[in-house]
Amino acid sequence: MMTKQAMNFTDYYSETLRRMREDGLLLVSADRAGKPNVMTIGWGAIGIMWGRPVFTVMVRPSRFTYKLLEEVPAFTVNVPPPELAETVQHCGTVSGATHDKFREMNLDAIKSREVAPPIIGQCLIHYECRIVHRCDMRPDLLIPEIHDECYPGGNFHRYYFGELVASYADEDVRTRLVGSAG
Ligand SMILES: Cc1cc2nc3c(=O)[nH]c(=O)nc-3n(C[C@H](O)[C@H](O)[C@H](O)COP(=O)(O)O)c2cc1C
Asked: 62: domain CATH number?
């Protein structure tokens, strides 16, 4: 495996957002016993809150990931290379409640530096986060346009604010992302 170099959390900001809009990113959580689960995310934000670097993700209550984040308040976000597109699609389609996606997709769960949930060895950029705040959407405060477009069946997201406690990437990220669409 390529050595993973520590980076500033904004070093691959545009690459990360671009991959989030293309295939999606991989969010890893874990239960108390340490068993990991992975789900695809298409929405999220990297920024500064409370004077700290934060990765905010949005998880619907129906996800198995939601149960795990309530159990262990930490997660990692992993940026997949384009070759992993099918894996990303699978992780965004089946649930960890009934599937061991790490095993099915041959993903390497590598010990994180600072948090309990692992990172994914095959991914290129990694963000380790500890949850410092969470809150639920207020449907009554949402504009009707987004309400109707994104929530026809309810299942409103919970926001998880993950303070970035470690960020690192493969040395050859830029070459590996060259040629991907977007
Ligand atoms: C491209 C893509 C982006 C997604 N983004 C999100 C997201 O940001 N939040 C969310 O709750 N679900 C999102 N999903 C759906 C979950 O990944 C999907 O329901 C997954 O099976 C949940 O896995 P889990 O039950 O193991 O947690 C997305 C799915 C895809 C394919």
From this structure: 2.30.110.10
